[in-house]
Every structure is written in C-alpha cells, then in structure tokens.
Automatic annotation (TrEMBL):
Family: Belongs to the NadC/ModD family.
Keyword terms, alphabetized: Glycosyltransferase, Transferase
Protein species of origin: Azospirillum thiophilum
GO biological process: NAD+ biosynthetic process; quinolinate catabolic process
A GO CC annotation given for this chain: cytoplasm
CDD domains: modD_like
Residues of the signal peptide: none
Upper classification of the organism: Bacteria, Pseudomonadati, Pseudomonadota, Alphaproteobacteria, Rhodospirillales
Keyword NADP applies: no
Name the UniProt record assigns to this protein: Putative pyrophosphorylase ModD
Amino acid sequence: MPTILPDAALDALLAQDVPYGDLTTESLAIAGRPARMLFAARGAMVLAGTEEAARLVEKAGGHILRVEPSGAAAEAGAVFLEAAGTAGSLHRAWKVAQTLVEYASGIATRARRIVEAAPGVTVACTRKNFPGSKDLSVKAVQAGGAVMHRLGLSETLLVFPEHRAFLTGAPSEWIAALRRKAPEKKIVVEVGSVEEAVAFARAGADVIQLEKLPPAAARAVIEATQGLAPPPVVAPAGGVTEANAAAYAAAGCRLLVTSAPFFGQPADVKVTLLPA
C-alpha cells in the first residue's frame, strides 16, 4: 500500500514530538554515532501504517533497509522494519513511528479477525474512528481485509431515527423522494426492531441496518423480506465483533457493519536501537 499520510502531516507529527531537538540524545553527545533500528512484532499481528513509519524515519534523516507492507501478517518475534542512520535521526523517529504502527496495526488485526470469523461476508467499518485519524484508520481497516461502510455524511443516504423524527408522511413517500433526488444511491434505513425492519423494507429501502439486534432477529428479518423484489440487504450494526460475526453469517447476513476494530489495545511492537 502507498503512504496515506502526506509529508506535511508526517512533518507535523515529528514536530509535535521533537519541537526543539532531542535533549537527551544531544546532551549525551551520541547523536552523530552510526546506528540501526529494528521494529519487531511482540505478538502475532496484521501490519498497518508501516509505510508511514518508514517515511517518518526518512523524514528524520534515517535510511530504510527493509519494510514489510501494510496488510502483511507478522508472527511473534518477526522483524518487519529495519533502518539505519545516525543515533540522532533514529531516536528522532523512534517513538512516533512505533506508536503509529501500533495503533494502526491494532485496528488492522481486529478487522482481520472479524473478516476471518465470517468467511464470504463483507465486513464494513463505520466512521467512528478517533477524530483526526480517519486517513490512517481507513488504511488500517483495508489492511485488515475489511471495507469502509461510510466515509462521511456526503456520500451515502443513511436515514437514522434521528432523521425520521423530523419527517411526516408515509415512509414510502420520503423513500421515493430520496430516490428521485439521488437515483444512483442506495437508501439505507437504520431500525431498532424486526417490525420496523420489515415495514421499511416493504416501503422500498434498499438496505436495512439493524441497530444492536441479535442474530436471531437478523434471521427473522431476512426470512420476512426474502419474497420482496428485490429483497433488501440486511446489515447488522452495533455490537458486531469477532465473537458473534459467525452467528450473523449463519443467520444469512452478507454484510456486517462494525466499529469494533477502532476500539481496543494497540498492537505491541518492540523497537531495538543499537550501534551499527
């Protein structure tokens, strides 16, 4: 994968961590000594953000000897990035690059686990990433084998109950109005019950998003709407994890919407810095 963060963003990350130089390294008078730096996985993980980490090293003055790409699986103990340079340049990039890879790889690893738990099912991640981290979060989701459900408000028609509170008229009327205004878009409606799901499917919604409904409810919606032409896509959302993804797949769901990859422990990366 290419780098998703531009040089200006990477420069800003370095500036946040090293605004006025590295006081310790410079005070010890070791900044000019030749050095090597190794990044290794402490546990099995799916890598993400390695290209950005490598570019951070280069921006700090180091040289990349090798780097494994985002999306690659790394076993415990595997070295996936190796760099050379002065001790000053490598110390400058060390912590920012390490932290970036750890957070991104945590997202990618959790996404991959959900994907592997439900073979043949599309796993789509929501836009509930930490504000300001969208670009890297999207890359991490894709590295894990998932796709993005919705990048922002500008690209999809997703009608929440919070929208419907302001609507009058039958659902079939405003669904038809949406289709006239944006005929190339699918109309997604989020619901909180089987009854709502069936009603909005009959009113013409293309996708029924089930908010925190269990697999049994998803199966009931699929069975109740399979005779429609065409039947809607039934997409569980809210609470979908690697623990229940297989159950939703067994219920007949072919699209799972989740925020779970964004929340959890970062991956654990060991960094070794030593004289060259």
